[in-house]
Design a protein that fits this description.
The chain contains 24 helices and 5 strands. By secondary structure, the protein is an alpha/beta fold. It has a 5-stranded parallel β-sheet, with helices on both faces. Helix 5 links the parallel strand 4 and strand 5. Helix 13 crosses helix 18 and helix 16 crosses helix 18. The N and C termini lie far apart (55 Å). 40% of the residues are buried.
């Protein structure tokens, strides 16, 4: 290697697409060497079944936002496609890479193995590789004895201001000369749905509108499929891809709670931020959850895949209006509130009696805010295979009447049912011949008949799962899980 090459530091961007409260960037700047910001559209992720074009569009929008902020410093994020190690090797033929800075990622197994390969490559090439904590998730801990204390300390740290100058960065002209640099044109996107747009500036637009107005009905509307779209923060994709840090959001939340009469209204929101980190930490400590039930006692549970059921569920054609509306909404917009997410998973795993693994990748591709550390623990909790959570089998009719009583959400996403009155819209299979003629609606033609018997399927799930939950194997595993993941002061998450 040519020792005359300029020594530089690389900041490898992953799920941390921002410029502020960004420890890798801060440390790289403090090195007094020029830095190169790098994002690679990796083949392993472009092919990964968890990701879809909506995620990569969000990433592109986020990078465009960063580049707009970098204009004053005459640089851009160096974007490439392919294998991260090959890209790093190409850079090392032009510069002497002193250190690679990156946030630690609690991702899927593919990204974990990728990170291990990058570490090995750095060691082989005598390049320092420094990882930094994000979201208060700690790698390698065996229990939660002091996790919350450490998490609080990290979240309460003062956010250090990062000052940039042109001299900090490898200039745009040099980056444009790299044979692997894809250029700004690669970041163009075509909207294929009603998706939130990525980027730091959009994150703060949602943040400000939430704290200025929308928070008022957060608790009241959190379970409503329609009203929650406005009353919830809608910040989850920005957290998932790091347009805003957990620390930034938490500190902003705590500040807002001191203003006027906001404290009570924002208490639940503040709690959810803590719970989010809790679940990601849980996944970090038991990443096998991506593939198998965390409670090994449930490995005995065998379910037969039914392609007909799965296709009907994915396309929103199950014959159950709230389920179908939720699925169609999710596919189109990439968003559902927590209650509806729980509902569709419960229906899939309990009523349709399908293994949770069979919906994991499909849902991940639909959720714009796909976060592995939230995704898999929640899937398993709703599927009733943890052995530590109450078995919940949601009734879609009951939930529809409670949370969408007038059928506003249902009719928005199922136009076939718009002519039906409130009394029928939740249970169109009960329509009689007189109503059929009045409303010009024919079940089985205009809208599918229910693909399962709701009561029979509930009884089957209950009669199967309850005995397993009482088995010695499940109880033993339940004790292990609680010992490993239960917080010493669980109530602290509620503050």
């Amino acid at each position: 290697m040519d020792t005359n090459f300029e020594p530089i530091h690389i900041v490898w961007l992953k799920r941390d697409l921002r410029l502020y409260d960004h420890k890798p960037i801060l440390e790289a700047i403090n090195s007094k060497k020029r830095i190169l910001l790098v994002y690679v559209f990796e083949d392993i992720l472009l092919k990964d079944p968890h990701y879809s074009s909506r995620h990569f569009n969000f990433i592109k929008e986020s990078i465009r936002d960063i580049n707009e902020q970098l204009k004053n410093y005459k640089t851009v994020v160096c974007i490439a496609k392919g294998d991260i190690i090959k890209i790093l090797a190409s850079i090392s033929r032009k510069f002497k890479i002193k250190t690679i800075h990156a946030h630690q990622e609690t991702g899927v197994m593919a990204t974990y193995k990728r990170d291990q390969q990058v570490v090995a490559w750095c060691q082989k090439n005598r390049i320092a590789f420094k990882e930094y904590l994000q979201q208060g998730v700690f790698r390698g801990i065996k229990n939660r004895n002091d996790w919350l204390k450490k998490w609080d300390q990290l979240m309460n740290q003062k956010i250090e201001k990062i000052s940039f100058s042109v001299s900090n960065f490898i200039p745009l002209k040099t980056i444009e000369s790299f044979e692997f640099y894809l250029g700004e044109d690669t970041l163009q996107t075509e909207s294929k749905g009603i998706h939130q747009i990525g980027g730091y500036q959009n994150a703060y637009r949602y943040l400000n509108s939430f704290f200025n107005d929308r928070y008022h009905n957060y608790q009241k509307h959190i379970s409503k499929p329609d009203l929650s779209r406005r009353s919830c923060s809608r910040l989850s994709p920005y957290l998932a891809f790091g347009n805003i840090s957990m620390r930034q959001l938490l500190q902003k939340t705590e500040y807002e709670r001191t203003q006027g009469n906001k404290s009570y209204a924002l208490r639940a929101f503040s709690s959810r931020l803590r719970w989010q980190s809790h679940f990601i930490q849980k996944f970090e400590m038991e990443c096998s959850m991506e593939f198998t039930s965390i409670n090994k006692g449930y490995h005995q549970l065998k379910k037969t895949i039914n392609p007909y059921y799965i296709e009907a569920w994915e396309k929103g054609n199950t014959g159950f209006p709230l389920i179908d509306a939720a699925m169609r909404c999710l596919v189109e917009t990439g968003y559902l509130n927590f209650r509806m997410r729980s509902l569709i998973v419960s229906f899939f795993t309990h009523h349709l009696w399908q293994p949770w693994q069979a919906c994991a990748h499909f849902l991940a591709r639909q959720f714009l805010d796909f976060e592995p550390g939230i995704h898999y623990p929640q899937l398993q909790m709703q599927a009733g295979v943890t052995g530590i959570n109450m078995l919940r089998i949601y009734n879609p009719v009951k939930n529809g009447k409670e949370h969408d009583p007038k059928g506003v959400f249902i009719k928005q996403w199922i136009p076939e049912l718009r002519m039906l009155p409130q009394a029928i819209v939740h249970t169109p299979w009960l329509i009689n011949s007189f109503e059929t003629s009045i409303y010009g609606f024919k079940l089985g033609k205009d809208y599918p008949k229910p693909i399962i018997d709701l009561e029979k399927s509930r009884k089957k799930a209950t009669s199967t799962l309850w005995p397993i939950s009482k088995s010695p194997a499940v109880r033993k595993e339940g004790k292990r899980i609680l010992s490993k993941h239960t917080l010493a002061n669980r109530n602290s998450l509620m503050t």
